[in-house]
User: What shape does this take?
Amino acid sequence: MSTRSRWNLPTAISLEEETSGPPLREQSADALTALAQPPAGEVDVINWRTAEQHETAAQMEPLREFVDWLIATYNVQPSVIPPCWWKHPALIQELYALRVFHAMAFHVEDPGQGPIGFQERWFMARSRLNEYTNDTGCSGSVHAQRVIEPPGPTRIDDEWFELTTGSRAWNDTTTPDEGFQL
Assistant: This one.
């Protein structure tokens, strides 16, 4: 008797069980193809800066499942992903980017470089996640509720005006001494 996984694929098949339909080898190939594809709707790429609240809310449960899998699979410590990661926008966006990359890396149309690409991106993301977590002051047992005053809007002054109206180039510099030419 076979059991079913969460993707409704056979996880165990009794050798004594009679099967109808395609041979087991073809069924296995179909199952592997299905596993390689993310579940329907899995990769809804959104822009977190401009997304509506309902769009971001819809991403949180799949993101939590991915983060739980990531922590368990890679033995991630709270110094990298704290339990309160979902309270920190920078952590949410980094983890979301990883989730999207992971789903695309294992897509059936990927030419085969996706899995190693994910490993490379995960390796780089760990240091950024660790840095973000250090900045929050959170640990495995403590959520540090930091209130950071935003610096305010960009200061608009004469230099900004010159830069944005084209009357001054962004890389305009004064030379250190008269004889030096850039």
